[in-house]
Amino acid sequence: MTKHCCDQMTYHANLTCEIHKNLFDCPDKLIIFHEEDCEYGLIIHDGGSSTIEIMFCPWCGINLGY
Fold this sequence. Notes:
By secondary structure, the protein is an alpha+beta fold. The chain has one helix at residues 7-14; strands spanning 31-34, 39-43, 51-54.
């Protein structure tokens, strides 16, 4: 489990779903973390695989571009 800026971000970025094989189908999966780029994205639950890059943690407010 990768540690992130706060407990909430760690939980959501590392969340795996036993029901949905595709993480974009899981309504509980809110954040995606791309380890290669160290970028975070907010998942857009519209039936596709869209994300919006976020620069600040939605829970603690820390700058994620460190």
